Amino acid sequence: MRTHAFVLAVLGTLTLITGCGGGSPTDGGNGGGDAPFTASINGQAWTADELTLQVTLAGSVDFPGSLTISGTQVQSGSNYRSVILALGFIPGTGTFPLGVNQGTTPGGSGSVVVVAGSSFTNYATPFSGNAGSVTVTSLTGSRMAGTFTFTAPPSLGAGASASVTNGEFDIELPAGFVAATGNSRGSTMTATIGGQPWVGATIVPVGQTGIFVVGGQNTELSVSVTPTLPVTPGIYPIGNGTAGITIHIIDLQTADSWGPAQGSTGTVTFTSTGGGRISGTFAGILGKVGGGSTLTANGAFDVRAPGT
Questions:
Q1: How do residues 104-126 score in pLDDT, each as one tens digit?
Q2: Neighbours of 126 (CB within 10 A)
Q3: What does the pLDDT look like over 21-72, one tens digit per residue?
Q4: Which of 172, 199, 223 lies at the terminal end of a domain, its last residue?
Q5: How far apart are CA 131 and CA 92, in angstroms?
Q6: Residue 177 lies in a domain
Q7: Are residues 147 and 32 in the same domain?
Q8: Do 71 and 195 fall within a single domain?
């Protein structure tokens, strides 16, 4: 989806620069003012030129609350800057993380395209779960307004990140936009692991009612909740892989893992295991696979059940 947003922005910019067509984009809007999409990029003011603003649906009936907002500030045919927000599962007003997979999780990603002569750089938020945030301050049947901030490293190679601050948007919604509500809302998984906050960027449940795996990961850790037997709402012990519920945490940088090992204790509380949602909390001390220091983990999950 990030690639789709990037291509959308570049195509819109090229259309403007080459002079192909004089009308405004099909799904654009003027936001009720002269500057419906603005921000600061590395401290420099940025405003999307009105003719470049595009707001498009980004998904299907299975991905409600999803859209892409893109705009470009053109200084010349070979110098311009674009900002893209790719959002998913927006249920209404509130604050949602950037640096998450908008195909599974409320929030989304942010990116910046900078073209300066022969230099072309694309900056994109990684799936870290905490690259920034978007706050929807108003959502009606026809308009969405809000603010955003994010930090995005270069997509290729090393170099300084793009810092986007003071972002604002006030846009007309494309026909067919539907907020993500009820069982169709996206999946969330958050925790405090080893004393540090963790936000799942991509969250995927697998299985069926009562027998499933709830898994989430970001660029640092993978976290999964796996019942060893069918479960219903209630409190279950954290086990070592042969009894109870397994909490499995993997450090994606070192491959160290905790949970399915001797010494794991705690509980998982399921508040819902059917009806389209799997939700609950967990708290425990996890033994390290192969021996070593234990890891404390306390978290919560609220995900779309498999097949919904």
A1: 999 999 999 999 998 999 999 99
A2: 17
A3: 222 233 333 333 346 999 999 999 999 999 999 999 976 667 899 999 999 9
A4: 172
A5: 21
A6: no
A7: yes
A8: no
CA-based Rg of the chain, rounded to a whole angstrom?
21
In a domain, 181, yes or no: no
Question: Is there a contact between 98 and 132 (Cβ–Cβ < 8 Å)?
Answer: yes
Domain that holds residue 133: 2-172
Q: Quick one: tokens of 160?
A: 């300084």
* 197 inside domain: yes
Q: Are residues 49 and 109 in the same domain?
A: yes
Quote the distance between the C-alpha of residue 23 and its chain's center.
32
Residue 157 confidence (pLDDT) above 80: no
Judge whether 179 lies within some domain.
no
Question: Distance between CA 246 and CA 297 in Å, rounded?
Answer: 12
Looking at the 3D structure of the chain, how many domains does it have? 2
Q: Shortest CA distance to 54 belongs to which of 20, 26, 17, 96? A: 26
Residues 6+ apart with CB under 8 A from 23: none
Of 172, 198, 218, the one marking the end of a domain is: 172
Please give the single-letter amino acid code of residue 249: I
Residue 239 and residue 228 in contact, taking contact as beta carbons nearer than 8 Å:
yes
Contacts for 156 with CB less than 8 Å, ≥ 6 apart: 122
For residues 258 and 285, is the Cβ–Cβ distance under 8 A?
no
